[in-house]
Design a protein that fits this description.
mainly beta
Length: 68
């Protein structure tokens, strides 16, 4: 998988996902909480995607990037 960046960490309102190559409709980003529950899943639409995380409770979350 190509190199990608997720920032800022910690995030309050928006989480940015940036890739060195176009991931259009080929990758899915999942946000998972500390207990392993899937919180959200987003198909990445281009080299940079902004996710609204303002509704998430404060805590620790994991990001999982998968090729489709």
């Amino acid at each position: 998988l190509d190199e990608f960046y997720i920032f800022p960490n910690p995030a309050n309102n928006v989480l940015n996902v940036v890739s060195g190559s176009d991931l259009s409709n080929t990758s899915t980003l999942s946000v998972i909480d500390i207990s392993g529950q899937l919180i959200s899943e987003t198909t990445l639409t281009n080299k940079q995607t902004a996710l609204d995380v303002s509704q998430l409770a404060a805590g620790i979350y994991f990001a999982k990037l998968e090729r489709l």
